[in-house]
Every structure is written in C-alpha cells, then in structure tokens.
Amino acid sequence: MKSTEPVAVRKIDLTSHTDKVTSEQAAVETPVTIYVNTELVATLFATPTALPELVVGYLVGEGILRSFSDIEDIAWSEGTTSVHVRTKPGAQVRIDAAKVIRVLTSACGSSEDFHRLLDRIDKPFVKSQLRVSASEIAGMMSKFNEYSRKFREIGSFQYAAAFFGSEMKAFFEDVGRHNAVDKTLGRVIRTGLDSSQVVLVSSGRQSAAEVIKAARVGIPISVSIRGPIYSGVLAAQKTGVTLCCYAKGPRMNVYSELERIILDR
C-alpha cells in the first residue's frame, strides 16, 4: 500500500501575490490491526508500509513478546492492513503489558505516581559497553537529516533510523513517531543486528514510550533532534538507556548514562 496519496490544494502566497490550484502528496494514515494467535492485540493508526517491521517492533518494544525467536510465522497481504502473528509453542504472550504502557505514558500526575507505574512493568536494564564519541553522534545526525530531507516534501511524517557503527542500517517514515520507531526496531530485530551496538535516532520528542521500547530491544543509546519529556528522562534512568536530545550540529544534551558519550579531544 502507498504511503501518500495526491490531494488538490489551493496555494496562496502573499509575498509573490499568487493564487493557484494544484496537487500535492498527503501522508496516508490507516488502522493496522495486529492479531497474535488469532487474538486481537492492538490497532495502530500508521502509515501502511513495512508492516512486518512495524508489528515486530511493536510486539517486542511493548513487552508483549520477549524476542523475535518467539514468533513462528507472520502473515499479511499487500491489499489489507491486518497482520497475523503465530507464536511458537511455549512462548509467553503478555498482552496486558501494552495496557500498562499506555497508562504509563499518559500519566500526568506526580513523579511518585510515575515511579509506581514504571515499577509495575517488566522493564529491562541495558548493560551495553558501547561508547560513542560526540563527533560520531553529530555525524549520524548529519546523515539522518540529509537522508530525511529526501522525504520532507511531505511535512506530516516522523522519521527514525538505526546506526551500527557509522552505517545507517534502517530508516523509516511514518505519520506517528511511535510507529517510525517500531518499524526501525522491527528491522533491527528481524535482521539479527547486535542491538547492544546500535544507536537509535529519531525526529520525535522522547517520552517514556520511546525509551522503554529501545530498552526492551537492548539498544543502549537513543538520540533525537527534539527534546525529552520528563517521563523519558526518568525511564532512561530506570532502564540504563543513554538519552541524548537536541542533537543538532555540534551540540547535544545527554540526560542519563552519561559515560557512553565520549567527548572528543
């Protein structure tokens, strides 16, 4: 299925005093329904591309499945947006985990409330020995921005990418920042990349949801051009993820596990 569709648009420019009707591409959003062992797990409103990556990233990132090895088969068709996952015998399917995460990320009470919710989930702790220099992070962001510019004719997309060393191993766009991250994590998982050596890069703000998804996959460093939400900082401290935000040009802010980012001499 296509990620964009043409729409008619009237463009008014007061600087050049022009008024014309033309067409442009608009981002597509559609419900993607996920079934695990015939049970409805979730419906995501997403751009209908890279559906296997989206589903795998979502299921592992939300803690519904432990790992890609739990999956026996993934079935979908190009003409629909329903994805059916069948797990191996003995695999633990934790569908209730997604409900806890949704409560967690929508919490707006006290920090004590947040900590109690965070402690309720089956959270991982990332112990990777990965170290990356600040100049390497800047280089990744430069490549990420250059690549995403190719897609920016459509202003409604969010982007995410995975870097292994200095090489971009995955890049995805979606109308939702969560979905773009899920697709990227799904590619890391499905290709068997060593997640302990991966840097996740995204264009969206960093909340607890994004941080915990990265931690569940075992990714030690999450970088964004946007800023963090307080829940994201707390989640990073709880899960051992290095959270790096406002990564623009030579500047960046690091909020947790500071030693993973090395200052160039």
Q: Roughly how many Å apart are the termini?
A: 48 Å
Main β-sheet, spatial strand arrangement:
9-8-10-11-12-13
Percent of residues in helices comes to 25-40%
CATH architecture: 3-Layer(aba) Sandwich
Mind telling me the CATH superfamily name?
Answer: Cytidine Deaminase, domain 2
Biggest beta-sheet profile: 6 strands, mixed
Provide the structure class: alpha/beta
Overall residue-averaged pLDDT value: 88
Question: How many domain modules?
Answer: 1
Helix and strand run: EEEEHEEHHEHEEHEHEHEEE
Shape: globular
Description:
This protein has helices at residues 51-61, 96-106, 111-120, 134-149, 177-190, 208-217, 230-239; strands at 4-13, 18-27, 30-36, 39-46, 71-75, 82-87, 132-133, 158-164, 167-174, 198-202, 221-224, 242-248, 251-254, 261-262. It is α/β, with parallel strands linked by helices. It has a single domain, classed as Cytidine Deaminase, domain 2, CATH 3.40.140.10. The strands form four sheets. A six-stranded mixed beta sheet has the order 9-8-10-11-12-13, with helices on both faces. A four-stranded mixed beta sheet has the order 4-3-6-5, covered by helices on one side. It has a two-stranded antiparallel sheet with strand order 1-2. Helix 1 crosses helix 6 (208-217). The mean pLDDT is 88.
Quick synopsis:
The chain is of the alpha/beta class.
Features:
six-stranded mixed beta sheet; 265 residues; 31% helix; Cytidine Deaminase, domain 2; four-stranded mixed beta sheet
Secondary structure elements and their pairing?
Blueprint: E1 4-13, E2 18-27, E3 30-36, E4 39-46, H1 51-61, E5 71-75, E6 82-87, H2 96-106, H3 111-120, E7 132-133, H4 134-149, E8 158-164, E9 167-174, H5 177-190, E10 198-202, H6 208-217, E11 221-224, H7 230-239, E12 242-248, E13 251-254, E14 261-262
Parallel strand pairs: 3-6, 7-14, 10-11, 11-12
Antiparallel strand pairs: 1-2, 3-4, 5-6, 8-9, 8-10, 12-13
